[in-house]
Amino acid sequence: MARPWRVAIVGGGITGLAAAVRLRDRAPAGTEITVYEQSGRLGGKLRTGELAGGPVEFGAESFLMRDPAGGESAAVTLARRLDLDARIVHPTVGQAALLVDGGLRPVPGGTLVGVPGDLEKVAAVARPAADADRDAGRPLLAPGEDLAVGRLVRERLGDAVVDRLVDPMLGGVYAGRADDLSLVTTMPALARAARAEHTLVGAVRAAQAAAPRAPGAPVFGTLAGGLSTLVEAAATASGATIRRDAAVRELRRTPTGWRLTVGPTRDPELVDADAVVLAVPARPAARLLAGAAAEVADTVGGLDYASVALVTLALPGPALPELSGFLVPAGEGLLIKAATFFTTKWGHLRRPDGLALVRASVGRYGDETSLQLTDDDLAATVRRELSAALGTALPEPVARHVQRWGGALPQYTPGHAARVAAARTALRGVHPTLALAGAGYDGVGIPVCVRSGETAAEEIITALGGSAA
């Protein structure tokens, strides 16, 4: 009788845990799954904490309800698999704003991450160029072509649309600049449409039509009790052995699989596995790949990341607008790039004592000196800038929390998807029992990370000989 498979998952974020759940569901009975997490905490950027006696997210806040094709997102499917779907809640206030010329203006409707499908709707915030978006008689993108989002939108609609709409929206997600970020990776639906459509407005409308949303259907969801419940439930359902404070320092090929060097240099532990899922950021993955696949390591290690800080203030009875929050274009000259009115946006978080939770995001790629401020100075600056944006002095917080995420958000330059595809193809050709998964390769957001982990698990199952299903 053959011995059970042994699969090692390096990284205990939601990507690695989703891979572990999929392995448990699809791999043969008895498969030994071990998750190695170098820190003492699972979940990666999913972290629910407490502030002023109530729950608050110190990392990711929510997930998309739909996938790009219009079906249920991978995050929703995972929540359902973990019997958490009854806990899914949606924003009670959906309208967000942009800070433009020092004042808040509603984010115009009909856009795709700020790229307009109706030029009239955005004119009050960012008037497109007079000769905008003329049909040149050919598709916007050639087959296989990728370019920066900012370049495409500037050429078609002018600078104002990029600087006042697209850049702050992309910056809110990636902490990067539209002029540097890949269209194919950050806006894949628009990229697909642009290979057929001759105008950018036409491409936006085609992308929206390809994934229709029922009127009133929620776009985002989160879990009552916090997103850490997703992490805990996935860890339990996977049946995996969870190794916290277990840094994997080296990965070597053996005649029968892989050998992991785990733990401190002075007292290392050597662990053998039949297959490995690397569900860690690109640079740690590249270090582990260096001995087994140097060329792939070079490609993976070239990905850069942005660092951010999330500053949450618990404010006693502030005068807040009925908005979910607002985005800040870089041209406004503020430290904050986005703010969320948590207890306004999420009805289940509203408190009977009138305490409001407001969170601001600080840090843009290439301009991260602000993150060198102390926690006290960051919190004070955020309160001052929020007060200016709202036109009213916010009260002193009764509590505050500063969460720093160093190297948290991947920066996908044009050609990223093709580079990752080539790296994975090369890796599968030599080492099919070694898979890459996570935001560094496939994009940000909980659904993308879940799907990435699940896909890596399926690749491992195929490489080892097929599933039990």
From TrEMBL:
<protein>
    <recommendedName>
        <fullName>Coproporphyrinogen III oxidase</fullName>
        <ecNumber>1.3.3.15</ecNumber>
    </recommendedName>
</protein>
<keyword id="KW-0560">Oxidoreductase</keyword>
<feature type="domain" description="Amine oxidase">
    <location>
        <begin position="14"/>
        <end position="461"/>
    </location>
</feature>
<dbReference type="InterPro" id="IPR004572">
    <property type="entry name" value="Protoporphyrinogen_oxidase"/>
</dbReference>
<keyword id="KW-0285">Flavoprotein</keyword>
<dbReference type="GO" id="GO:0006783">
    <property type="term" value="P:heme biosynthetic process"/>
</dbReference>
<dbReference type="InterPro" id="IPR002937">
    <property type="entry name" value="Amino_oxidase"/>
</dbReference>
<dbReference type="Pfam" id="PF01593">
    <property type="entry name" value="Amino_oxidase"/>
</dbReference>
<keyword id="KW-0963">Cytoplasm</keyword>
<comment type="pathway">
    <text>Porphyrin-containing compound metabolism; protoheme biosynthesis.</text>
</comment>
<comment type="function">
    <text>Involved in coproporphyrin-dependent heme b biosynthesis. Catalyzes the oxidation of coproporphyrinogen III to coproporphyrin III.</text>
</comment>
<dbReference type="InterPro" id="IPR050464">
    <property type="entry name" value="Zeta_carotene_desat/Oxidored"/>
</dbReference>
<keyword id="KW-0274">FAD</keyword>
<dbReference type="GO" id="GO:0004729">
    <property type="term" value="F:oxygen-dependent protoporphyrinogen oxidase activity"/>
</dbReference>
<dbReference type="GO" id="GO:0005737">
    <property type="term" value="C:cytoplasm"/>
</dbReference>
<dbReference type="InterPro" id="IPR036188">
    <property type="entry name" value="FAD/NAD-bd_sf"/>
</dbReference>
<keyword id="KW-0350">Heme biosynthesis</keyword>
<comment type="similarity">
    <text>Belongs to the protoporphyrinogen/coproporphyrinogen oxidase family. Coproporphyrinogen III oxidase subfamily.</text>
</comment>
